[in-house]
């Protein structure tokens, strides 16, 4: 165990002196691997070469650039405004309704974006001006945006889930399915946090304008047609009038065609249902679903006339940059994991837990506490990549479900994203809303951090919330 702990400390020191995290993990991984093999540099570099080659040719990893591209297309199509308006139409008249509409809109946007930072940044521009117009307190407005932004990595598709799935060889489709019910629970609990804040201070979140039912239905125009299409295809597949694959193809073509007719929020909902429903129903794999989603988002952006050659080039370049960054970090993490795996740390942790005869749930609780503490001082992706190689063998040793553990990790990452002082979403809001003091942002997120901790406890106590939908997958 000493070798692994020394390597972890050296890696943290390298990161502290501003060595890029991918290089820090890669350097420690290669040097540590060589040390464990009696300073055999040939085997260390051969292992590194293999990891680089396998990562580059891994077909499953193509899901990463495709989902990133899907999010970039939808962002440029301006869908965040439509999602916010649709949510506001139904709940904006309630106390704190605009803040709750922001959270619901973030959940919807996250379902097609997959990025927490992009979601928070987008809704800082979309929702904050509206909340200020209606007299919302800055601490509630910024807290709702920061907390709502975290839903971008829990509601599938999620880049964090993909990376966890690759590192642990866990089924990505099952991880996506497992995130749906916890995502709904998260949306509900964050809205309850808004209600708590406005209960204590009604002036923090005044009621908005009540819209008529005609205006509410207009905000989701076309949902009925998409729902009718879905029901018809499900019935045809169930009665075996159509093969499941044929139903999926017909559904995809029809959704793409209808997006030129209904250009609002209904098309986004339909695209999400198409991608996740296809993966959940076994019609296509996660990678194929990502391809369908990326093409659907492209069609959607074209239908809204939000895409020209310049914006298309910008979307492709941004997707390539983000993908390159993630792949470099992943390669470094895999090399570091290779080093940790050949040390005695995994077996030492197993022996330690066995000697203490601790209950598995208690062990998971301690691991989650460690993650929460690390999340207040470390960048979230780096924290995941560093710690999963250490804790995951212990989870398997205890006989716990890796899908459930993956969802717990995502929830802990969400908490880290809004935990002072280094929560990434807090930095995003501080940059985009310089008129709001940093202490106000920190104060605003605390009720949401508390509610996220409650959600984490619920998911630990009731694993079925995460595992029910994956258990039904084909």
3D architecture notes:
The protein is an all-alpha fold and 474 residues long. Helix content is 78%, strand content 0%. The radius of gyration is 23 Å and the shape is globular. The model has no long low-confidence stretch (mean pLDDT 81).
List key phrases describing it.
mainly alpha; 24 helices
Give me a quick take on this structure.
The chain is mostly helical and 474 residues long. It contains 24 helices and no strands.
Show the helix and strand layout.
Layout: H1 2-16, H2 21-36, H3 41-57, H4 63-76, H5 79-91, H6 97-113, H7 116-133, H8 138-149, H9 159-168, H10 172-178, H11 180-200, H12 213-219, H13 223-238, H14 244-258, H15 265-280, H16 286-303, H17 309-341, H18 345-356, H19 360-375, H20 380-397, H21 402-417, H22 424-432, H23 438-461, H24 464-471
Helix pairs in contact: 1-2, 2-3, 2-17, 3-17, 4-16, 4-17, 5-6, 6-7, 6-8, 6-11, 7-8, 7-22, 8-11, 8-23, 9-20, 9-21, 10-24, 11-23, 13-14, 14-15, 15-16, 17-20, 18-20, 19-20, 19-21, 20-21, 21-23
Largest sheet: none
Strand content: under 5%
Count, helices = 24
How far is the N terminus from the C terminus?
A: 40 Å
The SSE order reads: HHHHHHHHHHHHHHHHHHHHHHHH
Q: How big is the Rg?
A: 23 Å
Query: What would the average pLDDT be, to the nearest integer?
Result: 81
Structural class: mainly alpha
Q: Could you list the spans in which at least 5 consecutive residues all have pLDDT below 50?
A: none
Helix content: over 70%
Shape: globular
Number of distinct beta strands: 0
